[in-house]
Amino acid sequence: MEPYDPNDAVAPATYWKSANIKRGRGRPVVAVIRPTLNMRVDADVLDAFKATGQGWQTRINAVLRDAVACDESLNQFCPGSSSKKGLQFR
């Protein structure tokens, strides 16, 4: 192998063509990419979810998913709810 010449424009392209790139540590690749969300919630609500331990973000997602499934048409309400307007939690 020849020494690297910083003035050779072809050298980087040649290197990257033959490079063996391995995925290192980090988050595993997923089939469905979920968007990032910045949302404000009451501190006590956040504290309650965080107190449940690791995976609290996933549990928040599950609660939101249940609320959407419960009120798909936005005209229905969840069983046991006293209100018929909008998304209601059980």
What would you note in describing this structure?
With 90 residues, the chain is an all-alpha fold. The longest helix is centred in the C-terminal third of the chain and has 15 residues, at 56-70. The protein contains three helices and no strands. Helix content is 36%, strand content 0%.
Feature tags:
single chain, 36% helix, disordered C terminus, 90 residues, mainly alpha
- Secondary structure tally: strands: 0
Q: Note the gap between the termini.
A: 68 Å
List the uncertain runs. 82-90
Mean pLDDT: 78
Structural class: mainly alpha
Task: Compute the CA-based radius of gyration.
Answer: 25 Å
Which term fits the overall shape?
elongated
Element string (H = helix, E = strand): HHH
How much strand?
A: under 5%
**Residues in helices, as a percent range:** 25-40%
The DSSP helix count reads 3
Largest pleated sheet: none
Helix and strand arrangement:
Layout: H1 10-18, H2 43-50, H3 56-70
Describe the structure in brief.
With about 90 residues, this protein is mainly α.
